[in-house]
Amino acid sequence: MNPGGAWAVLLAAAACEVGWAVALxxxxxxxxxxxxxxxLILMVASVLLLERAMRExxxxxxxxxxxxxxxxxxxxxxxxxxxxxxTAARLASMALILAxxxxxxxxxxxx
Length: 111
What we know:
111 residues; mainly alpha; 0% strand; flat
């Protein structure tokens, strides 16, 4: 896989990370079968895709990007789906995480 492909796989892993977190919220303590099953499926998919991406991307970079995008994506999903606070401080903090991810993409992949 080329490096661009590995980054695409890593983005898919992060999207699955957001998906399972949202599904887990909808599962309401594992009491709703479909969202609970989706959460489990997306958890496994997220980790498998992360592992695949780490074949080309250094582990520290891949893991930091995966967790960072997962955190920002989940926070944004919480704002839009669950009416969580949309404060300037929260949004600025998410922007800082994204800045770190851009830095890792630009400077963290050199071997």
